[in-house]
Design brief:
Blueprint lengths: L3 E4 L2 H16 L6 E6 L3 H10 L5 E10 L2 E9 L10 E8 L3 H9 L4 E7 L1 H4 L4 E5 L4 E4 L20
Helix pairs in contact: 1-2
The structure holds 1-O-pyrophosphono-5-O-phosphono-alpha-D-ribofuranose (PRP), xanthine and magnesium ion.
1-O-pyrophosphono-5-O-phosphono-alpha-D-ribofuranose (PRP) binds next to strand 2, strand 3, strand 5 and helix 3.
């Protein structure tokens, strides 16, 4: 269980992905994008649109079952990206860095970008936008839904 949660709305994700695209303009040009499925797909689409890139490849690394972490397994290789030369890898976040380490091993020449980064993983990315603490779980808009909120005055107080 995480100590903190950081909720990201669709608007914020769009804004942060565009901010990442701004930073990436001077690091390119890129021939194509490799999205790390599934979390990297939407940021990759936003960034590919902003950088006017039409070649979008994907790589799938399965590591987590909700908040439980296992061994990373590559279930889809990024065949069109070769050794990564001229390619931009995009993920939604780096946490421990284990997904990034696997993908960097597959595409050693690519530029690695993530929208959000935690301290243990940020050394593995070339570009990111926002850092959160290691004990924070990021709640993405595709994993959440709006629900009724109990008024503050009716909540139980601990002290
Ligand atoms: O730095 P790490 O500790 O490897 O964690 C980061 C990875 O974990 C999440 O993906 P997940 O494996 O949950 O799959 P998903 O993208 O399909 O949700 C997230 O999208 C990153 O890809
Ligand atoms: O939705 C997510 N939020 C996170 O903080 C995280 N870390 C690894 N995998 C994650 N998935
Ligand atoms: Mg992922």
């Amino acid at each position: 269980m995480a100590a903190h949660y950081y909720t990201v709305t669709w608007d914020q994700l769009h804004r942060d992905a565009r901010a990442l695209a701004w930073r990436l303009i001077t690091r390119g040009p890129f021939r194509g994008v490799v999205a790390i499925t599934r979390g990297g797909l939407i940021p990759a689409a936003i960034i590919a649109r902003e950088l006017d890139i039409r070649l979008v490849e994907s790589v799938s690394v399965v590591t987590y079952d909700e908040e439980d972490k296992g061994q990373p397994v590559v279930t889809k290789h990024p065949a069109a990206a070769g050794d990564g030369t001229g390619f931009l890898i995009v993920d939604d976040l780096v946490d421990t860095g284990s997904t990034a380490r696997v993908v960097r091993g597959l595409l050693p020449k690519a530029h690695f970008a993530a929208v959000y980064a935690k301290p243990a993983g940020k050394v593995l990315v070339d570009s990111f936008v926002t850092e959160v603490s290691q004990d924070t779980w990021i709640l993405f808009p595709w994993d959440t839904e709006p629900q009724f909120s109990v008024p503050l005055a009716k909540r139980e107080r601990s002290a």
